[in-house]
């Protein structure tokens, strides 16, 4: 006889996907003040859904920024473990809009994929947990374990206020372990257990020269060009072998062991050239692209601008130029220290004739690693195999999820990173999407995992 | 008894300024297709004004781009010289609009200055010649010499089609000398004869990597960042001593003689630090700021952009980055060769992992120099003294006016560069303006010059 929970999920698939699409249609872009109302709307969606499916003590917990949605179901009985489920309802900006084939906030299904900003990161994946809880509660009338949810609205901007909230409400959020679905598989159809994440820090700096843009004929030869000065500063930060040149950047880094290099080599490699269109990969001298993305720190320029950007020519020496930088860190690197090393470097390499001003990114995050042999991690791998009919690989990912480091430091609990995204999801880019067969198979994985955790 | 011409100008000052303001209110931005209609409107303004004041054979001469306005008055009699008066009715873009205190196309007078895009460059100065011709024709019924006007609409974008037109209509435009008011004085109230101009060439290049923006956590460490690559290429083009590092850039340059260095030293120096707000000047090793701006070539980045430019953070490796470059050249440098040297340099310094594509700027210009002792040049200095009650200085300017080189090469005639702009005019910047007392004194200068040329 078919599992009642699975049957419920099959029968209510369309309905649940419709709810997900409603969730996806809200432009909850946390980084941009213009969308503040929409971010709030998304928080309310989550709150209402939790109310509908039978959670309790649901509340929008205010922060100085966007609220965190809390809810619990604690009726699993004596000795049952408590899981903290984390997700986020905010999304990345959608620009450049003109590169989207469909409206980023009008969810569209095409060739088995659901297209919308946030479909993969993270609304689709967060919603899967809620769908599974709904199925258990509507059929068995209970969940297999105690559940607390923490669904926030600032992940894309560094989860600036979450640490403080978790600290303040430590007892409310306390659990035996946490689970997060906000990551991806290394390849389509390749279940992937994330056992490590990179840390994160960043800043924005502006080089300024003359008070106003200047006529380049009249002033060229007397004035340090701020764009040139910015280019110079940036060029000193990494050498041509992708080795970061910022003093002390690598000082305390946990080295990449031979054992880990083998684990990395076992992971099916993405063919970057064909998948993303680059002529060839580049990586830090002495490391392969996979080793660098997974186990070595990075420094990237995310945006850079100054002067005339319109059509044609404008013969000016621009007044100023700005660059936005972020670093992904590995165990051993302290994000606050790294940020300060970046600042020192920028100040020391600013040429004469211009001034520099620096804006730090708010709260950053240390890197995270868990033992791949932990029972919960091993159960996650087993459940993955049930859902996807394939053995899981274990990887450390180049991305960062700030909350992971904080859960680790506040609660010291295992964190199961069970993601269902794929390399083709185009996170942070135009035409983000999530494959519906991963939605379906992931839900099966979660049903098995939540059931099996007790044993 | 007061000069009738001067009297006419005084009595019709308001009326003529009103006409100038009508001219200025037309957003004739040549570089941007959006304003094509307005550019045409400005051409028609000039045509109509010439008709009103009594010129003949007036026509809008079509080019592939914007038309050139031609008109003549050839009734000065046997042995009278013919002057070709050049000006332009197109203007620079006005952005960034939010930095203007008044609408760039709603001319406003404040503290003795007329504020509008084009007030100084070049509508105000071009109009002054028309105002003077009007005065002569309405009072004496004739002009003191034969006059042909050539007022074009593409100066701000390199006068791309003018050379061809002048070549094709060589006989129509033939004259004994030319006069151009499209430059400025080295200081307020300091009459300045320009005896040299710099040449010009440029290009735009784009560095591209992945087909789309990428998640910097997932792909950082495998991909060459196009912004970083662009910064690197730019940083190789000039060293920290402002010496251009592009091979062959300086090969054929006419060196700056001691005599010229003395002429330059005699020119009252602008206090760049106080006038434009830079912390200090920088110039090519071995040259002062004044020597570099006047007599040495320059390479400037006019615009640079790629990746996320909005509020806050976006953790991407951008798909591409673009920079716009222009060079000001001195005698001895061939603009087409220089452009090719730039292209070679960019190609040779493009790192692996990215591709580069280059877009050349259309027609460029060689530098120009005339003998400061030519009788016409000396007369211009005298007339300046009449108008401004101060002796003129002789300078070579950092700016370029493409037509100067072409008039030189097609007709081999002296070109009198008699400008009335000032360093505070803010050419090519927000809040461009032109001082009304220079409008008035410049008109007196032109009346004297046109009268005296016959003698």
From TrEMBL, chains A, B:
Residues 195-353 form the Peptidase M20 dimerisation domain. Pfam families: M20_dimer, Peptidase_M20. Keywords: Hydrolase, Metal-binding, Protease. GO terms for biological process: proteolysis. GO terms for molecular function: metal ion binding; peptidase activity. InterPro entries: Cyt/Met_Dipeptidase (IPR051458), Peptidase_M20 (IPR002933), Peptidase_M20_dimer (IPR011650). It comes from the Bacteria. The keyword Metal-binding applies. NCBIfam families: PRK07907.1, PRK08201.1, PRK09104.1. This is Acetylornithine deacetylase/Succinyl-diaminopimelate desuccinylase. It comes from Amphibacillus marinus.
């Amino acid at each position: 006889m078919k599992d009642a929970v699975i049957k419920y999920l099959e029968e209510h698939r369309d309905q649940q996907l419709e709810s997900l699409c409603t969730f996806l249609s809200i432009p909850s872009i946390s980084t941009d003040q213009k969308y503040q109302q929409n971010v709030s709307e998304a928080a309310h969606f989550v709150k209402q859904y939790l109310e509908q499916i039978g959670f309790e003590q649901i509340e929008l917990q205010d922060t100085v920024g966007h609220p965190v949605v809390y809810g619990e179901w604690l009726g699993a009985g004596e000795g049952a473990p408590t899981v903290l489920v984390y997700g986020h309802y905010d999304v990345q900006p959608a620009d450049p809009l003109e590169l989207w084939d469909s409206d980023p906030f009008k969810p569209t299904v095409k060739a088995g994929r659901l297209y919308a900003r946030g479909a993969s990161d993270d609304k689709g994946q967060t919603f899967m947990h809620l769908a599974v809880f709904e199925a258990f509660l509507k059929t068995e009338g209970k969940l297999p374990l105690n559940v607390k949810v923490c669904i926030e609205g600032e992940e894309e901007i560094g989860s600036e206020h979450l640490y403080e909230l978790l600290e303040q409400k430590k007892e409310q959020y306390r659990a035996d372990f946490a689970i997060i679905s906000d990551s991806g598989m290394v390849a389509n159809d390749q279940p992937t257990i994330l056992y490590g994440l990179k840390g994160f820090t960043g800043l924005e700096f502006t080089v300024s020269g003359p008070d106003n843009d200047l006529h380049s004929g009249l002033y060229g030869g007397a004035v340090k060009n701020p764009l040139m000065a910015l280019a110079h500063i940036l060029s000193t930060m990494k050498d041509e072998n992708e080795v970061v040149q910022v003093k002390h950047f690598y000082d305390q880094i946990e080295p990449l062991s031979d054992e880990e290099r083998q684990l990395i080599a076992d992971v099916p490699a993405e063919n970057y050239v064909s998948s993303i269109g680059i002529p060839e990969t580049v990586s830090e001298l002495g490391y392969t692209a996979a080793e660098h993305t997974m186990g070595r720190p990075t420094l990237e320029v995310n945006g850079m601008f100054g002067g005339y950007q319109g059509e044609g020519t404008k013969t000016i020496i621009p007044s100023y130029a700005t660059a936005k930088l972020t670093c992904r860190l590995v165990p051993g690197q302290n994000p606050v220290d790294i940020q300060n090393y970046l600042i020192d470097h920028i100040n020391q390499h600013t040429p004469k004739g211009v001034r520099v001003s620096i804006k730090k990114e708010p709260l950053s995050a240390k890197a995270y690693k868990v033992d791949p042999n932990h029972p919960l991690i091993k159960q996650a791998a087993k459940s993955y195999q049930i859902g996807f009919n394939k053995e899981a690989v274990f990887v450390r990912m180049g991305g960062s999820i700030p909350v992971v480091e904080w859960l680790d430091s506040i609660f010291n609990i295992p964190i199961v990173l069970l993601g269902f995204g794929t390399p083709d999801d185009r996170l942070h880019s135009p035409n983000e999407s999530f494959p519906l067969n991963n939605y379906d198979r992931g839900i099966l994985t979660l049903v098995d995992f939540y059931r099996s955790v007790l044993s």
